[in-house]
């Protein structure tokens, strides 16, 4: 199976690159913005014409949630328009498209874990662009699976974990919100799950959404506390509300994902978020 990975220098893409050597049945084509700009429809079409692609894992994304509020067009181009180019090209090639979406498609007004069937109602430009991207994939790809995930972190790239470690090395205390609740997800766990499931998806699978995050529930405050405790940092974490912080984009207060479907359909074993955090920290 020849697999194209787009946006492969981001967190998830880098984790897929690290795992690639353990999947000798797959041949990978890792591309980044320089080698394949996914917003360039012509470049996408040419790439699919020149290579045999059996599967596409689209890791490219405009993931700056606050920046997206000021740059609506870029967020839409990368998260929705590019998804449409990729969906059409993979549809024509008969390739399976694996697409990534987000817990931020939900408004967060719920108080029980969101299932794949719950109505989306994004509160931010980023969330709206991710939902639009899902729709492009649902309509345009002939074989597709969408993974909705949340709060990704990794030893690669930029993320909350690294930001907390960086700030804690320079400050005695940090303010972190405790009224946004979700689940931190180690990008390596998600990458491994995607690669493991590829042979398990039925050939005609189309437009199926699967939630995947680590197990358990945390606020960003809990997440920050766990990071610093595991690192033995003396930096204190002060719990604050979202209203006390200068953020631009509205975020869901509650965005825990229900993983019952992926566990039932494929028997996926999902690690607890603290266990995965410890593993990631040992690799940094
Ligand atoms: N991060 C999270 O907390 C989170 C949560 C839920 C869902 N997701 C979704 O999961 C997916 C992977 O997230 P991630 O955290 O791995 O993202 P990431 O670390 O921000 O990586 C995204 C990658 O996409 C690349 N990219 C941006 N525009 C591109 C373009 N026009 N053409 C080709 N590549 C382009 C970026 O390259 P540059 O560095 O050059 O911009 C970057 O390498 C995304 O779809 C994201 O929306 C993420």
* CATH structural class of the domain at 2-153 and 184-214 and 258-271: Alpha Beta
Rg computed from alpha carbons, rounded to a whole number of angstroms? 18 Å
Q: Give the overall pLDDT as a whole number.
A: 98
Look at the structure and name the CATH superfamily of the domain at 2-153 and 184-214 and 258-271. NAD(P)-binding Rossmann-like Domain
Helix content: 25-40%
Distance between the termini: 31 Å
Determine the structural class based on helices, strands and strand pairing: alpha/beta
Which regions have little confidence, pLDDT < 50, spanning 5+ residues? none
3D architecture notes:
It is a single chain. Helix content is about 40%, strand content about 15%. It is of the alpha/beta class and about 280 residues long. The protein has a domain at about 1-155 and about 185-215 and about 260-270: NAD(P)-binding Rossmann-like Domain (Rossmann fold). The strands form 4 sheets. It has a 6-stranded parallel beta sheet with strand order 2-1-3-4-5-10, sandwiched between helices. A two-stranded parallel sheet has the order 6-9. α5 links the parallel β4 (about 95-100) and β5 (about 145-150). α2 (about 40-50) runs parallel beside α4 (about 70-95). The structure holds NADP nicotinamide-adenine-dinucleotide phosphate. NADP nicotinamide-adenine-dinucleotide phosphate binds next to α1 and β4.
């Amino acid at each position: 199976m020849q697999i194209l990975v787009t946006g492969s220098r981001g967190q998830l893409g880098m984790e897929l690159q690290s795992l690639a050597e353990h999947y000798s049945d797959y041949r990978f084509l890792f591309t980044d913005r320089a080698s394949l700009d996914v917003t360039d429809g012509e470049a996408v079409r040419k790439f699919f014409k020149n290579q045999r692609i059996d599967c596409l894992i689209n890791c490219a994304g405009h993931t700056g949630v606050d920046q997206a509020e000021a740059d609506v067009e870029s967020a839409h181009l990368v998260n929705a328009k590019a998804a449409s180019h990729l969906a059409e090209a993979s549809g024509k090639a008969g390739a399976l498209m694996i697409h990534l979406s987000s817990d931020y498609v939900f408004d967060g007004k719920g108080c029980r874990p969101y299932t794949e069937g719950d109505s989306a109602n994004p509160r931010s430009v980023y969330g709206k662009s991710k939902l639009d991207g899902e729709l492009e994939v649902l309509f345009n790809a002939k074989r597709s699976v969408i993974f909705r995930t949340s709060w990704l972190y990794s030893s690669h790239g930029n993320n909350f974990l690294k930001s907390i470690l960086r700030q804690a090395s320079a400050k005695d205390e940090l303010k972190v919100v405790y009224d946004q609740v979700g689940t931190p997800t180690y990008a390596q766990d998600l990458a491994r799950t995607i690669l493991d499931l590829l042979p398990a998806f039925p050939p005609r699978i189309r437009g199926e959404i699967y939630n995947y995050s680590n197990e358990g529930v945390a606020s960003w405050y809990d997440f920050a506390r766990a990071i610093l405790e595991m690192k033995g940092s003396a930096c204190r974490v002060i719990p604050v509300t979202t209203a006390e912080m200068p953020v631009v984009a509205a975020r869901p207060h509650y965005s825990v994902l229900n993983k019952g479907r992926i566990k039932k359909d494929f028997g996926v074993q999902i690690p607890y978020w603290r266990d995965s955090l410890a593993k990631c920290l040992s690799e940094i």
